[in-house]
Amino acid sequence: MNQPNAIVTFLTRRHGGKRFDSADIITYLYLILGTVVMFGPVVWLVLSSFKPLEGLYAFPPTFLPYQQAAVQVAGYAQPLDLYDVKLSDGTVRRLAQISQIGIGARMIDPNAPNGKPIDINIDQRTPVQTIHFEFDNYTGAVEKFPFLIYLRNSVVVTVAATLITLLINSMAAFGLSKYQFRGRDALFVIILSTLMVPVSVILIPAFLVIAKVGWSNNLWGLIVPGAATPTGVFLLRQYMLTIPDDLIQSARIDGASEWRIYWQVILPLAGPALAVLAIFSVMWRWNDFLWPLIVVSQTNLFTLQVGLNAFQGELNQQWNYILAMTVLTLLPITIVFALLERYITTGIATTGLK
Amino acid sequence: MPNSKGSAEQRESFSLGDLLLKPFSWVLSLADLILLPLQNLIGARRMAYFFVLPNVLIFGVFILLPMLLNFYYGFTTGNSILLENRPVVGTANFQKLLYCQNYLDVNSCTEDLFWRGVENTTVFVVGQVVGMVLLSLVTALALNREIRGRGFFRAIFFYPVLLSPVVVALIWKWILQYQYGLLNAFLVSLGFDKIPFLLDARWAQLWVIGISIWAQMGFFTLILLAGLQAIPKEMYEAASMDGANKWLSFRNVTLPLLMPTMTVVLILALIRAVQVFDQVFVLTNGGPGTATLYIVQYIYRTGFEFRDYGMAAAASLVLAIVLLVLTLGQLVFSRRQEAV
């Protein structure tokens, strides 16, 4: 009699050896519901992206991607669709359909291709479906649309911009944290205050400046302007302030140049902060939309985000390709997140920045 | 967090930083060949100027200069983007932008689209910020309990934050699709009629708010969670010794101590909500009609579609002032709380 109780105790055992209480149950219900709401849409996107067109436009939709099963029957050139047919004697047989005329269908037993065809009413048959992942959506999206060009642009912009960001932000942070010079504090305050200036507020003049510099319709126009991030300078400066000045002094005594001190003493020590900034920068650049949207108008310079937007605007009906491209666009950032989840969440929680 | 774990984490990220630096170390050492003579020329202390120069240059040209130019645009008119072809009109843009016969009726304004944007943005900001902060707080409280799978749930709630606005919009566009959408399939299976979610003004407004909460709440949950974990355990022990039940200790310990974090979260959420644009741009493009037309979209449309740069700049200056007030509000609030 004690058995069920023991199982319940085992299942509900927790760290402290305490039993589940009602608050725990409510917490779990909330978190599980939350998981469905937060992650469900992405799962649905991925599953949908593997559905063939007829599955995509089936209503009500199925959860998994299905496809009508078909068999090759001797004597017929094309594979024939399989159906479960309820015959007039009440038995159910799996038959292949030769042809359909109006509400009637002519079926044949695939195991007896030379047998007599059976004529039935289409109400009597239900299609046999098998789970099938349609990769044609992906190959089609890559072949028919300049996906690879968008991908290349996104990768080039993200990588180049992140490297430049890390270099110039850490240089500025080094200058601001380890030197005394006139106007230093004013400079820091000005840089910080632009944390609050979003691109949306300076859209038009920023576009003019880009055009004057000759960078409209040029990837440099996407890479350089955003590289001087106030967030990065702030993050790195705060971190470098904690590095003792003695280290710099002794390096100077050893005859190291200022530049050498920067990249051989300070940069390695600022590793954790640089890693956080690198992750942020990749996130910002990969997902950036508004800036590339106004700077670039030639399709061969579109990033994935801009390309995806243009693509969904012009081909409203081709959801199979749109969904596949959306999955491909979110894939890199998802992989980065899966690998570096702990750095990202602790980085954001400690800096309060995104 | 126990100490040993913390240092292990640091060591790991050190190697990550090293990995990023390694391939470039030879480039950086080559740079020394040029920079050493420079240092000998200007002196070690002035090298500080060299270090801040690239950042300041980019920053000045692409952020500071546009900010100043924006003022000029706001007081000029015409369809040319070139400054020399733009006649100065004084405050005419602002007068046109801000004038209404009756401030309670958007249709009586000369620039009714702008005011429609203001109205929509206000509704959006109130709905989004209140909804999101409440949900983030509840989620943070749930994640702060000592339960199994906490890291997993935290990651799941945070994941949408990483998705780009375009991806977020497309995911939901597919779910909310009228003919084949998942949500309408649910409705039909429950015996209801299909609803054209994104083609009905009310529903579209509601979904834009909901989706924005979905995409951003993980970020704010994380900050609130950090705030909750900073509350010392002794405070709760003391409260329970004094006979406080869970609700009382929540009201008298958790809430007051979380207040500074809440203020930061609230202001950050406000600043972001006022600037709502890209996700909605892809999802509804302001429609149906002008139901989800927000201020930034008005600026984008006026500037880049109608080429009325003067009006767009004037509107963005108004937006900048709103953001400035919000930012100052944050400073004042956090100062006052520090003083308490």
Features of the shown structure:
heterodimer; A: alpha+beta; two-stranded antiparallel sheet; 8 strands; about 60% helix; B: about 350 residues; 14 helices; about 75% helix; globular
Number of helices of chain A: 15
> Runs of chain B with pLDDT <50, length 5+?
1-13
- Kindly report the average pLDDT value of chain A: 83
Instruction: Say what oligomer this is.
Output: heterodimer
Amino- and carboxy-terminal Cα gap of chain B = 28 Å
Query: Helices and strands of chain B: which structural class?
Result: mainly alpha
From the N-terminal CA to the C-terminal CA of chain A, the straight-line distance is 56 Å
DSSP E strands of chain A, number:
8
Overall pLDDT level of chain B: 85
Major interchain interface with per-chain residue totals: A-B, 114 and 116 residues
User: How big is the Rg of chain B?
Assistant: 26 Å
Q: For the report, how would you describe the main beta sheet of chain A?
A: 6 strands, antiparallel
- Topology of chain B as a string of helices (H) and strands (E): HHHHHHHHHHHHHH
Shape of chain B: globular
What helical percentage do the residues of chain B reach? over 70%
Got a strand count of chain B?
0
Q: How much of the sequence of chain B is in beta strands?
A: under 5%
Based on CA inertia axes, which overall geometry of chain A fits? elongated
Largest sheet, strands/sense/barrel of chain B:
none
Beta-strand share of residues of chain A = 5-15%
Structural class of chain A: alpha+beta
